[in-house]
Amino acid sequence: MKIAIIGLGHVGLVTACCLVNWGHQVYGFDQDEKKVKQIKEGVPPFYEPALDQLLQDTLASEHFLVHSTLTEAISQCELILLAVGTPISTEGKLDLNQLWQALEDLVSLPILPPYLLIKSTVPPGTTTQIYHRLQDRVEDVICHPEFLRQGNAIEDFQHPNRLIFGLHHEDSQAVIQQLYHPFQKKSHLFQYCTPASAELIKLGANAFLATKISFINQMANFAEQVGANIEEISIGLGSDPRIGPQFLQAGLGYGGPCLPKDLTALSTLAESPLLASTTQINEQQPHFLLQRIESELGDLKGCPIALLGLTFKPNTNDLQASQAMYLAELLLQRGAIVQAYDPVIKDTPCKQLQLAQTIEDAIKGSKAVIIATDWEDFQQLDWSLLQRFRISNLFDGRNLFPYKRAQKLARIFRITYHSVGRPTIRVE
Ligand SMILES: NC(=O)c1ccc[n+]([C@@H]2O[C@H](COP(=O)([O-])OP(=O)(O)OC[C@H]3O[C@@H](n4cnc5c(N)ncnc54)[C@H](O)[C@@H]3O)[C@@H](O)[C@H]2O)c1
């Protein structure tokens, strides 16, 4: 199929490369000229594991053509995928400016492809609003929400657990089957529903996941008060198939470009007290760790601290709504000298933050070490380094070390180990 993709951010670019890999011809458009130039040179504008090689292979196939303005080539396409950004506004609503602008650009073209698929996350009613605007020029406008996770985006695209389509016409299923031809024999993956339901499935999924995290974090905070261990509680809760083990890892809380944004959007739209509490608990979570650090180390003014991890989660270079960055800012506000190390971050907007080249450089001269992002590198942390640099306190904000292992390591290397919702391990 010939497919146009408007918006080559995380969603659009990964989608483009994967679709070419399935044999489609893709025309990619992004208004950001710098981004377009970079993509044409085979360099992804963001970090995503394995994307650089996939992009280079995709470009070499000559089935991916990239432009900074919409061209008439679009009229030869069978469908358009719209993947522009929908950030959150100051009023807590999804900002649809990029989407309306893209639509205006489309309307000005003499011929439009028959199908428009909206991959951007939008509030209920948006897809149908677009359909009414374009009704006499297209067959259907379909809401097709995206569920890929940054850091796992290619794998998620190639092995989806569901494909949701909010349609205005049942006939539109035929074009969807062509688009997703590798899954033609996996009919259980496809869910067809109304556009409004598809829009709400997307917002609901992220709001639910965020709520699960805030739930376990609140349980963790209470577990600390009563001397229980959240690791054991998570295993006990997650073994119930109605609950499931995922997103039950207590820690500093969620962040990134999707969970906080989609949760806030749904919370505002639905005026939901439940979702408002989810946000509030998440905002508090770094403060709990900060209190623990202060009660252990005392006044943080002038205190050198090593912070391991800055991104909102591992395998991405995204700092948006990162709880690790938030914790760094809280520490700096208290006057601490923060030496941060992150495997992929080489610069941040926070100028007071000192960036170390290696874990060792971050730890050297620090009074304590904090783990703020669950990068695999930190799971392999060499505790003898801590001992060598006379670190007596490790604050594990992501519960990266299973409790029994942490007990053993703490004893061997004589380090006090603090985590979230689990008793502190002290070595006399
Ligand atoms: N990033 C994720 O992990 C993720 C996951 C699921 C869903 N989503 C949703 O998918 C959508 C896209 O997300 P993203 O992370 O790729 O966004 P992004 O902001 O990284 O990329 C959007 C791209 O669209 C381009 N753009 C904006 N207006 C344009 C126009 N008029 N014409 C051409 N290009 C235009 C921008 O220059 C940018 O490159 C959002 O609605 C987001 O909520 C994102």
From TrEMBL:
InterPro entries: 6-PGluconate_DH-like_C_sf, NAD(P)-bd_dom_sf, UDP-Glc/GDP-Man, UDP-Glc/GDP-Man_DH_C, UDP-Glc/GDP-Man_DH_C_sf, UDP-Glc/GDP-Man_DH_dimer, UDP-Glc/GDP-Man_DH_N, UDPglc_DH_bac. Keywords: NAD, Oxidoreductase. NAD(+) binds at residues 30, 35, 86, 121, 261. Its EC number is 1.1.1.22. Residues 306-403 form the UDP-glucose/GDP-mannose dehydrogenase C-terminal domain. One of its GO terms (biological process) is UDP-glucuronate biosynthetic process. Substrate binds at residues 202, 247-251, 255, 313. It is an enzyme of class 1 (oxidoreductase). Pathway: Nucleotide-sugar biosynthesis; UDP-alpha-D-glucuronate biosynthesis; UDP-alpha-D-glucuronate from UDP-alpha-D-glucose: step 1/1. It comes from the Bacteria. Belongs to the UDP-glucose/GDP-mannose dehydrogenase family. NCBIfam families: NDP-sugDHase (TIGR03026). This is UDP-glucose 6-dehydrogenase. It comes from Seinonella peptonophila.
